[in-house]
Amino acid sequence: MPVNPSALSLGDLVAELGTRGDCRHDPDLHMGPDAFEDEPLAERLARQDVAREVCEGCPVWALCLDYALRIRPTFGVWAGYLPRELAALRREARALSAPEVEEAA
């Protein structure tokens, strides 16, 4: 039975992602090298493309997206999105919600 992401606390989301997310097999793929390593642009783009492919078939994709939208990450690949793409999704969601809020008032 699918889990409703909005019904879970952040802690429960983290637990689900950690036990069922496909990224658990290779976290560096999604997060990149540590802060002390230099990653050439071509390698970073290739790594991100592979990470996005892993996300496509992940059984907890919706949970990951919900988590990423809540925590607003500054790096990594989350549910197939980069942080700037997640920020754009949040802005788009707010823009879509704004007319509904105005109509209710």
UniProtKB/TrEMBL annotation:
Annotated organism of origin: Actinomadura luteofluorescens
CC annotations in GO: cytoplasm
Claim: Cytoplasm is one of the keywords in the record: no
Sequence ranges assigned to domain 4Fe-4S Wbl-type in this UniProt record: 22-88
Cellular compartments annotated: Cytoplasm
Pfam family, one: Whib
Reported cofactor(s): [4Fe-4S] cluster
GO molecular function: 4 iron, 4 sulfur cluster binding; DNA binding; metal ion binding; protein-disulfide reductase [NAD(P)H] activity
PANTHER family: TRANSCRIPTIONAL REGULATOR WHID-RELATED (PTHR38839)
GO BP, sorted A to Z: cell redox homeostasis; negative regulation of DNA-templated transcription
Keywords recorded for this protein, A-Z: 4Fe-4S, Disulfide bond, DNA-binding, Iron, Iron-sulfur, Metal-binding, Transcription, Transcription regulation
UniProt keyword annotation of Transcription regulation present: yes
Protein family: Belongs to the WhiB family.
Transmembrane segments: none
Protein name: WhiB family redox-sensing transcriptional regulator
